[in-house]
Design a protein that fits this description.
Blueprint: H1 14-19, E1 30-37, E2 43-45, E3 53-55, H2 60-70, E4 74-80, H3 97-108, E5 113-118, E6 132-133, E7 136-137, H4 139-156, E8 160-163, H5 170-180, E9 187-194, H6 201-207, H7 227-238, E10 243-247, H8 253-262, E11 267-271, H9 273-284, H10 290-304, E12 308-311, H11 314-322
Parallel strand pairs: 1-3, 1-4, 1-12, 4-5, 5-8, 8-9, 9-10, 10-11, 11-12
Antiparallel strand pairs: 2-3, 6-7
Helix pairs in contact: 3-4, 4-5, 8-10
The structure holds ligand PBG.
């Protein structure tokens, strides 16, 4: 028995256990997804995501107030437009749902960080993330649209744009468009390693963005691949992304780990709708302790190396941190 290296003496008291924690989590690192529905007045619960809501333009500030009450200071916006067409033109309309929501939020809460999802699938009538030629998304034509979307979000006052489309070259094109239009200070959070995942199911039901035919495997990543994630991150890194992202989180902790040690950029993880819905369902069935599972999964993501986390549990996690359950 090795008497010298026994680790137990570090575990004597709760205070010392806390002192010796290797992973620190902070409310500052949490980002809350907010769904804004242009056709809605007030607030409507999202069926596929128990505990989450759709907000109308007249109530979106309530979502922000709730965040701030819990000490959550950052949000990412997703829009459900009143109109869709083949090229997703409502995505970059000056009076589009996100543009109006950003103005409302930044007008009332200028210090709340507003990140906008830049993608076309919620705005196209076919539900794909770009401009279609036949049944294929045209990468380069889509880039021009994404640039328009990002600039319109920045013009409305977004602090950061988050391209989730997975088109090649998207960060370079967005960076140039933002700079040319005077938005040098608008940051880019790139969904760099975004897998073609079944975990997006509840989101697509919530955002009305499921593809009407086919799937997204042509532009989202194959879950078999890890090295490819590093290549995707390297591209976005080289094109000047301010923050890299891995999505989903829980089934991709190895990818988070590798990206965290490989790249010299802040790393975000997105704990997506299916991850949240599974915990909700299991706890509603009385099978697991919701708070403990929520905390343990979030910790695993931070422990893997994420610097920040997009999560539908942001407010509850903030409470757990404030209450010392994790920290
Ligand atoms: C838009 C987008 C999606 C998600 C975030 N942005 C859906 C998708 O790619 O199909 C999913 C988020 C979640 O599941 O919580 N492209």
């Amino acid at each position: 028995m090795d008497l010298i290296n026994r680790p137990r003496r570090l575990r004597r008291t709760d205070a010392v256990r806390r002192l010796c924690r290797e992973t620190r989590v902070s409310r500052e690192a949490l980002i809350y997804p907010i769904f804004v529905d242009e056709t809605l007045s007030g607030v409507r619960p999202i069926e596929s995501l128990p505990g989450q809501n759709h907000y109308g333009l007249n109530s979106v500030c309530r979502a922000v107030e709730a965040c701030l009450e819990h000490g959550v200071k950052h949000g990412i916006l997703f829009g459900l437009p009143a109109e869709k067409d083949a090229c997703g033109s409502s995505a970059w309309a000056d009076r589009g749902v996100i543009q109006q929501a950003v103005r409302a939020i930044k007008g009332a809460y200028p210090d709340f960080t507003v990140i906008t999802d830049v993608c076309m699938c919620e705005y196209t009538d076919h539900g794909h993330c770009g401009i279609l030629h036949g049944h294929e998304v045209d990468n380069d034509e889509t880039l021009a649209c994404l640039a328009e979307i990002a600039v319109s979000h920045a013009a409305a006052g977004a602090d950061m744009v988050a391209p989730s489309d997975m088109m090649d070259g998207h960060v370079a094109v967005l960076r140039r468009a933002l700079d040319e239009n005077g938005f040098q200070n608008t940051a880019i959070m790139a969904y760099s390693a975004k897998y073609a995942s079944a975990f997006y199911g509840p989101f697509r039901a919530a955002a009305g963005s499921a593809p009407s035919f086919g799937d997204r495997k042509g532009y989202q990543m194959d879950p078999h691949n890890r090295r490819e994630a590093l290549r995707e991150c390297a591209l976005d890194d080289g094109e000047g992304a301010d923050i890299l992202m891995v999505k989903p989180a829980l089934s991709y902790l190895d990818v988070i780990r590798e990206c965290a040690v490989t790249f010299d950029r802040p790393l975000c993880a997105y704990s997506v709708s299916g991850e949240y819905a599974m915990i909700k369902a299991a706890s509603a069935a009385g099978l697991v302790d919701e708070e403990r599972i929520m905390c343990e999964t979030a910790l695993s993501i931070f422990r893997a190396g994420a610097d920040m986390l997009i999560t539908y549990y942001a407010k509850e996690l903030a409470d757990a941190i404030a209450g010392g359950v994790i920290g």
